[in-house]
Structures are given as structure tokens and as C-alpha cells.
Amino acid sequence: MRPVLRSPVGAASAVLLCLLVALAVFAPILWGDRAAAIDTDALQQGPSSAHLLGTDQLGRDIFYRVLVATRLTLGLALLATVIGVTGGLLLGSAPSVLPRWAARIVTSAVNIAVAFPGLLLALFFAVIFGTGTVGAVLAIAFAITPSFARLTQTLTASVSGRDFVKAARVCGVGRFRLLVRHVLPNIAEPLVINATMAAGTALMAVAGLSFLGIGVQAPSYDWGRLLGEGLNRIYLSPAPALGPAIAVVVAGLAFNLFGEAAASLAGRRQQQRQEPVTHESVVDTSAGGLLTVRNLHVTFPGGVRAVRGVSFTVQDGEMVGVVGESGSGKSLTALAVSRLVEHPGVVSADRLEFNGTPLARTSDRELGTGLAMVFQDPMTSFNPALRIGRQVAEVSEVHQGLSRRAAFAKAVDRLRAVRIPEADRRARQYPHEFSGGMRQRAMIAMGLMGEPRLVIADEPTTALDVTVQREVLRLLARIRAERSAAVLLISHDITVVAQTCDRVLVMYAGRIVEELPTSELFTSARHPYTTALLAAVPDLDTDRDAPLAVIPGRPPEPGEIARGCPFAPRCPVAEQKCRLEEPSLVSVDEGHQVACWKLDAELVEAAVGGAR
Amino acid sequence: MSELVFDHVTVRYGHHTAVDDVSLTVPSGQVVGLVGESGSGKSTLAATAVGLVPVTSGRVLADGKVQMVFQDPYSSLDPRMSIGGSISEAVPRGIDRRAEVARLLELVNLDPARAKALPLKLSGGQRQRVALARALAARPEVIVADEITSALDVSVQGAVLNLVRDLQRQLGLSMLFISHNLAVVRYVSDRIAVMKNGAIVEEGPAERVLADPRHPYTRELLAAAPKRHTRLEVS
């Protein structure tokens, strides 16, 4: 609730709502007498200092009558909402508790009721229940019920499909308890928001019915009736009609805006303010390559530093693997290189160059044809409504100015190149007609529409089965061999990288902790994290009788990286220095860099020993 | 001691046959690893064991309680309920719930003092251990574990696998262990079953299936499994 009050709309509407409630409670006590006082000397007067909004045909002060009427108007609206929402909640959640045949009847009944416009239902019920307060409230309540029942049904269905509800079912939790303990708490937020908005609508509807003369009857009065009375002489004096009209609009708005503010908050959660982050530049004299990355940082609001000073080079035709667990920053590194980090992430680097030009200045065209990107999930990387061929061809239409037909022909050719059988026919199919592996190959074909110098593949095989995984990895290796394109392969699976790449970068907590040639991975890896990772992953040669090697604890989230080496809390050899200072990457051998203090200490020891 | 038996189980969704006449036995106190590609019907078969999916024909027989651990520990725990609450729901009547929850948390190497924590405060590996504790709370004889490590980080996966193996031996559970990762299945299983297109194509003792695969698909799976010391040959 508190964050709602922080947004200007939320705060303003909350103040208005409080004011309305205060009026509803106190106005009749304070001004009830004045509002009822008949003054035969001042019949049907216009606004004056004595009567701010004028008087009615019995000389009663309209301003005070509007204030006093708040209680009845608000009370009826809330009563109608409570009845309607309760009814909707019961009808909407009933299908998940009732036996199947009964559930079907309830669902169909709600579906039919939803088809009727709410106001029509209200008028219909008003006729049935007769004119008067009871009729109006019930009519509006019944008009709210169907849509609320439908909302509850939809939300319930979406939560019921989730694993925790299934798990509770398997544990033998009864249907009713399932609904009350697991489903309703998880859908409460949208329901409350919608109920608030429904209250606004109910308020308008109550006023509307009274205005039409089928709601509140004399001698009681609400805003709707006051509006009706004032409207009769609006040409003589508009104030008596405008007063209640404004009251209705303001109150209705207050409810709706409060609901909106709460809804938008629930939808996106509040964004924190961006704090400017500065990084020390690192003196860099090294030669670059096809892709040159120096001191790359990716930060998010709230001081979350997801990538913290990553430097590496990819040479022409080289296959480089980046290994790391979730939160290590490996995917963000890939996204930063392809300029795909989305707001509110901020990318900064001393050098971030592709083919000799800073990426910030590389044209979309050059990036679109020279760099290809393959994503993890082939299910979501294609637009389901367009044919595969069209989507693959798009690159050439946009960046190479090919005609639609020529681009499509080229797309078919590239689909053939990634060994999609019957490419001509397949190109005319939609993504759902492709298997996961074929979609991933089509994604690679899309990258081949240009003449890519670099293919960035972010977990390209994680969603695939081992047999398909092998095909995709082979395809990447073949592209590299045939087109001398470089490949940057990002994976959480060290065995995948070990099988295919020339060089491995091991990332942990936003930094590269070790870089070494793949051929030395299993023999000379030095960083305790790299060696622990290698030991922890079972393969087909793992000893089945011994427990698996484990790394205690878990990787830190990007937001919780503290002082010292981020691996220190899990490291078997960590000492005091590791907890205080973060080591930087130092070269230990040809093409082999490690960021670890222990190693440095050993090196120093060795050096001292050698000097003796 | 109890077995889990799938007896000519078929599951159809409209015209699509997800599980096609599968007969499989999980012998008492043993672990049967079920491997196969996604869409092969592994998870559907698992769901029939606990009644989440009705069988079209055939029978699932278990002479004991069957519990299931789900793949994604981020969605299998109610985000609004404390972990202790989730576990306690599964504890049978007539047992002191608080003491039982503490015992179970200890069993899966979690601090019993954290029973009041919400899942949000736990890492993936810890959540999966809570899910395991919940499954054990119902005192099952048979556990169905459906891809329980595939949503976890590799550095955390090992601890969960060790725990599963220890608990299975300690409690003498029968277990159907499903995974697409052959190396993981090999590590925990006594027997291995291979599934493809809704049918079991090969089943036997783990050592035999791995050393002497008879079905071409099993051979293909073994050949495709990443091995650390061999480079991928480019055809």
C-alpha cells in the first residue's frame, strides 16, 4: 500500500478517498440539520454567500445537501460493490471446488451473463426489484458479479496450473483448502485492484439510477437525485446541478485512479532512481582483435553491478567459450557486445570495438550483417505469426536492399546451408511447425543472411536435447571452418565449451576469474572455482560410488557482492586477504590468466625460494 | 517396501498419443532412471503416477504412497506461504507438525530455524531441498523426481544429487528419477529406461545399458552425451 501513496496519482486519489470517507461519516452529524432546514423565504435561489450552491424548491441549502448526501451515495455504492464482488468471487472460484459437471454449469452461466452489458443488466434488475434503494443496490451488484466472476475464474485457472498447486494436490490437500490457502492469496492483488475500480463504477451507476428516478426515492436523497432536481432548472441557475455532478465525477475518479495507480504498480513494481556509477579506467596498451572488450561494466538501478570490468579479445575465426552460472554476468556480456542491454541497464567500457570501430558508432547495417546472434530459447526468438522464410529473409530486405523475392530465395539457400531438409517447403511454414532444434538452426540461418564475422551464441543448446545439441554445436563449428567467422559461445555447461572452443573465459560474480586455452582446462586450471566446477559436473566417467564433489553455498546475486573475492565464502583455501581485497586478473602462463590471491602468494613463495 | 508398476499405460490428448503402451516397474528400494528427449512423454508418464494426468488405458499400481518432486523449485513452492507451512501441509494427521517440519528440514540439511522464511529468501538449491522435504513429509514409499536438477546451477546440482542418493538409501525409497541428462541419470540410477516418442525403447540394469546399449537411439544418446576429453568432431 505504501508505494501506491508515493506516486502522485496514487497519493492524490488516496487523499480524495479519505476526504470522502470523512465526509460520509461526519457530514450528516455536523450539517444534517442545516441540510434539512426548510426556508420558505429563499425558494429556488441561485448561488449566494449564504447558500454557496443556491437552494431547492423548499429553500434547503444545496451545498450542505451535497455534503450530507455523501454518506448515502458512498454507502450504497460500497454495499453494491461488496455484494457484487462477493458474489463474483463465489461464482468464480466455485468451479475449482465443485464436481466437474456442476463446475461446467457455473462456468457457462457466468459466460452468458458476461455477454450482457452491465448497465442493461442493472436496468433489467431495477425493473424486477422495483424502484427504490434496495432495487438499485441489488441491480448494480448483480451487474458487477459476472465480470468479477470471470476475472476470478481466469486468475484462478492461471494459478491452478502452477506447480505449487499441483504439488499441494499430490500431498493430498483438499480442494477447498487449496482454494483458500494457495489460490486466493496469490490472486488477491489484482482482485483488490479491480474491486476498487468496480466501486468507482458502482458509484456512478447508483447516481445514474437515482438520476433516472429508479434509485433513491424522496425523502432520502443522494447525489444522483440532487443532480436530477438541479437539472430541471439548469438554464436558470446551473450551480444546483453542477455541485452534485462534480461530486459524482470527483468520487468516481478517486476510486478509479486509486485502482489504476495500484494496478500500474503491481504491473511493473517501482523503478528505483538511477545512480551514476563511475569506474576507474584501466590503462590499456594491448592490441585489439575482431572484438575488443576492455573494462566492460553493466549496471542496474540500485547499485547492482552485474558485469564488473570484463576485458577480452576475440580474434578472427576464433571460437571462444564463456562459462558461468546464473548471475555471473555471462549473458549480459554477450548482450552488451550486441548492443542489446535494455533499459534500465547501463553499459560502459573503456573500449568496446567490433572490427576496429567502437560499437557505439557501428551502423545498424554493419551490426545487422556482420554480427549474428543466437539466443537460448528458440521458442520465443521467432514471431509465431510469420512464416520462417519471411523472418529469415527480413535481414536482407532491411540491410542489403534485396527485393522480397530475392531475399526469400536467399533465405531458402541459407536454410539449406544449415541442413534443414526440404528447405523450400519448410521456409513457408510457421515456427510452431518446427522442432526446437530446427528453429535453432533457422535462427543460425538468419545470422548467415549477412556475411557474419562474429556469431554470438547465448546458451544456444540449453533448451535442446543432447542429440540435437550436438548437431547445433557441429553447425557452429562448421560455420566457423567454412566462413572463417569467429564464435563467442556462452554456456553454463563447461563440457559443452570444452568440446568445441579454443579458449575459455570463466566468469564468476560479474568478472572473469580465469582465462585459459581449452586444451589446458583439465590439466592446468588454477582458480579454485574453475577446478571446483570441473569436479562438480558429473559426466559418463564419474565414479558412481563416491559422493559428487560439491561447492558449498551458492553464487552471489549481482546485488550482494561485498568486499573481497566474491568466491571467498565458498572457497576451500580462502584466507584473510581474500575476504578483504578482490584479486585482479594476472598472467601466469602463455594465454593463461587467473584472478586469485592464493596463486599470487604461491608465485611469490616460489620466487623467494628460487632466489635463495 | 513397495513397487511402482506402470502396466500398459497409454495417455492420449485428442489425437496425440503422449504415452504409448508403456510397461515399466520401479522395483522396491531401487532407483530407475528415465531418460529421453523433451516431448518423449517422460513427464506425462511421471504425472500419471501421482494422478495429475488421467491414464487413457492401462493401470498404475503402487503399494504405498507416491510423492513427486517437480522440476522448477521457483514455481513449485507457494510464494505466499512459509516453507514450514508448505511442508507442514503434507504431514499426515496425528503427528506433531512443528517437530516434524524441524526434523524434515534437518534431514535435507536446512536450518530448522528457517521454517518461517518465504521461498523468496531461498536459493534454487535450497528451494529444491524444501520441495524434497515436502515430498518426504507424507511418508511416501515411492518418489517420482521429474528433472529436479535441470533448473539448478551446476555448482548447486551436486549437493542436491548427493542428498537425493543419501536419502533414497537411508529411507529405502523406490524412485523414478527423470532427467534428460544421461550423466546425472547414470550417477543416481540402479536401472535405466530410455524413452522415445512415448514408448520405452530400452530398459535394463544401468551398467548394462551404458556398456552395451542395444537400441540405436540409446547408442545415439550415449554418443551425443558431452565428454570432457573428446573434441566434437566436425563432419
SSE layout:
The complex is a heterodimer of chains A (612) and B (235).
Chain A: H1 2-6, H2 8-36, H3 62-97, H4 100-115, H5 118-129, H6 133-160, H7 163-170, H8 175-212, H9 223-231, H10 239-268, E1 291-300, E2 304-314, E3 319-323, H11 330-337, E4 346-348, E5 351-354, E6 357-358, H12 364-370, E7 371-374, H13 388-399, H14 404-417, H15 423-426, H16 436-447, E8 454-458, H17 466-483, E9 486-491, H18 494-500, E10 503-508, E11 511-517, H19 521-524, H20 528-536, H21 576-580, E12 586-589, E13 592-594, H22 597-611
Parallel strand pairs in A: 3-9, 3-10, 7-8, 8-9
Antiparallel strand pairs in A: 1-2, 1-4, 1-5, 5-6, 10-11, 11-13, 12-13
Helix pairs in contact in A: 2-3, 2-10, 3-4, 3-6, 3-8, 3-10, 4-6, 5-6, 6-8, 7-8, 8-9, 8-10, 9-10, 12-13, 13-14, 13-16, 14-16, 16-17
Chain B: E1 4-13, E2 16-26, E3 31-36, H1 42-49, E4 57-62, E5 66-69, H2 83-90, H3 97-107, H4 124-137, E6 142-146, H5 154-171, E7 174-178, H6 182-188, E8 191-196, E9 199-205, H7 206-211, H8 216-224
Parallel strand pairs in B: 3-7, 3-8, 5-6, 6-7
Antiparallel strand pairs in B: 1-2, 1-4, 8-9
Question: If you had to describe this structure to a student in words, what would you say it looks like?
Answer:
- The complex is a heterodimer of chains A (612) and B (235).
- Chain A is an alpha/beta fold and 612 residues long.
- In chain A, 53% of the residues lie in helices and 11% in strands.
- Chain A has 22 helices and 13 strands.
- The model of chain A is unreliable at 269-275 and 606-612 (pLDDT under 50).
- By secondary structure, chain B is of the alpha/beta class.
- Chain B folds into two domains: 1-62 and 143-149 and 173-235, Rossmann fold (3-Layer(aba) Sandwich), CATH 3.40.50; 65-140.
- Chain B contains eight helices and nine strands.
- In chain B, the strands form two sheets. Chain B has a six-stranded mixed β-sheet, sandwiched between helices. Chain B has a three-stranded antiparallel β-sheet with strand order 2-1-4, with helices on one face.
